[in-house]
Amino acid sequence: MIDPHAPAPPGAPPRRGEPGRAPLPVRPGTGRFLVLAGVFVCAACGLVYELELVALASYLIGDSVTQASVVLSVMVFAMGIGSLAAKRLRCRAAVGFGAVEAALALVGGLSAMALYAVFAWSGGDWAGVPAAGPRCLLVAFSLAIGLLIGAEVPLLMELIQRIRRQEAGGAVADLFAADYVGALVGGLAFPFLLLPLLGQLEGALLTGAVNAVAGAALVLGLFRRDLPTRTRHVLLAVNVTVLGVLALAALLAGDFERAARHAVYGADVRVALHTGVQEVVLTGGEHGRPLGLFLDGRLRVSGSDEYRYHEALVHPAMSGPHARVLVLGDGDGLVAREVLRHPGVRRLDVVAPDPEVVRLARRDPALSRLNAHAYEDPRVRVLTDDAFRRLREVPARLYDVVIADLPAPGIGDSTKLYSQEFYGLARRALAEGGRLAVHGGQVTRRRVFWTVEATIRSAGLRTVPYRVDGRGACSAGGPERTVRGIHPEVTDWGFVLAGRTRPALRLDPAAPPPRSLTRESLAADRRAAARTRLPGLPPSTLVHPRYAG
Q: Does domain 303-530 have CATH number 3.40.50.620?
């Protein structure tokens, strides 16, 4: 007679109703493999949700370091709370895991669309606080996704132990090995596959669908005999509903993105594209409407007054020898236009990070007309490269003028372009008597601007700071205000002219006079900047950036 309470032979399928063992349709070894495969997929999806929130928040709010810190810290905290809360579900681990995965797929899949919708249609501001809407929603999604990801671990541990009991340390090692490998795959898939091929919205929706399918397949396939019939039907209906919502959102994503883009930029959008570097949007430029160039949601060029910024940046630096000029960051061609107004220029090298912006500057009728077809001049050579890396390769004392037309300083990707090391490389590239011109943000942001000036001085250069009234405009330069008001409007543009010896702040008499500058106005601009000076500020370096706030 067979004892029904005797343990099953090794490798045999568990008997239905066996104490402590889940009645599986497969062998225990196969069941463990399937659970670990589910861990792998769910971990990959969880990391994609994290990266998607960081990427979209950096685009909408700015300051990628801050957004990454907020998302990751809130999510890790929430994961701990979720793990504690899931202890109560261990007695019903299969149905609990199925419900958690369905909720995670819905919340994570729709997070990008919801965040973008709040940014586009609320204007970003709540109760008069800039960016309050996107920031609050970012924290809410980070908290919700972290809670659900944290709840997975104890439930999966219970499921894998119900398949075949093993020493706790071995079970934890297997579980976390699959989890970490899945996180690696998700972390690589996001920037190299999902983002370039599908974009942020569709990428998040596809990830949610994969998450829902993986969770439902594991619970309804492997542990279906452990669930009552009604529970199976409810879980199936919930997951079908989640997949239906995600599929509907995917079908509407194109119309949603166009409507949101119009809500952000207005109905005058002519070009909108995602490059490998950023999102590029062109508005206006036809029928008498001023052209606007937006990079990652921030206005970089306003055709109505961009000349005032570019003239102030370029013309003082060109007073002196200027046969060889290097421009860093001028993908739109507007700095090059001003440089080429000086008859002594024989060579102009432009280093731009995004080849798509350069292509638009050459081919878009409105933008090429605004830059006076500067890139068609035979003296111009355009290189698509990182400004820091390019400066490291430049031979010593090659250029008479170096002009840095770069994103405004802040804690993020632009920090290294305002570091002591960067200005040391720029000094090495300058010929005797050469000048460096730098846009340093708003002088009204006194600590940031004067830190730029102190950092340039720390690299062995003598400086002449000056400011130009921004008149509330948001043209090229910065700090780049987002259209919907995420950043305050520009009240002024601050510049620093520098050289091995102190350069004179004047205009080149051989060039056509600029529309917005005179010798007298430059003298007044220098005095206006000097009145705001903050002495004693330390320089910013690669390992100790000082542009927060």
A: no
